[in-house]
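dumping this here so i dont lose it
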């Protein structure tokens, strides 16, 4: 049964659609900037259960669980998974499929929640940035300064990237962002006499 074909589709609902806290276009708008695809592809490329994770699962399940199950977990990879998606940075509208993931049903189910998380956050930030760009107009320079205050070890890096996708011009310096080809500007110069 775990090898039966499975698929999930990711799209945003319209504002009129009642949804359980997910699937709505960010900020009550009728468009979204699609982002997060690169992270989803990276997840697929590196997806596997470590021995530490398998050990935790083994301790969490009844002792009657067969060893073959844990062997199955050790062998899971995404080599049979196919992803069809629109381009990252695209303007998307409600009910338009953004991503389709196909593969063995057990693997596809394991990928669904992280995909939702990666795409929702990225698209939220990129859409907010695009709305700022729209209000500011093309002639204004928009800089992103979230690296200092973003939550989590990767929050600032991710937010900087998605603000850039959404239309910001640059961020406040970081070598990692430079490697991702996001322009950065120094904004503070302190001089002591």
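and the seq i came up w/
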């Amino acid at each position: 049964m775990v090898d039966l074909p499975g698929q999930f589709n990711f799209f945003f609902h319209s504002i009129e659609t009642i949804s359980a806290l997910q699937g709505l276009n960010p900020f009550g708008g009728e468009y979204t900037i699609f982002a997060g695809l690169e992270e989803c592809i990276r997840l697929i490329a590196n997806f596997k259960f470590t021995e530490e994770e398998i050990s935790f699962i083994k301790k969490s399940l009844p002792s009657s669980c067969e060893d073959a199950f844990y062997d199955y977990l050790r062998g899971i990879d995404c080599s049979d998974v196919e992803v069809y998606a629109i381009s990252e940075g695209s303007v998307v509208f409600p009910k338009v499929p953004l991503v389709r993931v196909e593969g063995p049903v057990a693997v596809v189910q394991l990928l669904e929640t992280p995909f939702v998380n990666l795409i929702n956050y990225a698209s939220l930030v990129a859409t907010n940035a695009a709305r700022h760009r729209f209000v500011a107009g093309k002639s204004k320079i928009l800089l992103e300064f979230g690296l200092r205050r973003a939550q989590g070890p990767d929050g600032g890096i991710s937010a900087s990237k998605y603000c850039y996708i959404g239309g910001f011009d640059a961020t406040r310096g970081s070598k990692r962002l430079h490697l991702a080809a996001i322009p950065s500007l120094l904004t503070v110069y302190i001089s002591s006499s």
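The two ends are 73 Å apart (CA to CA).
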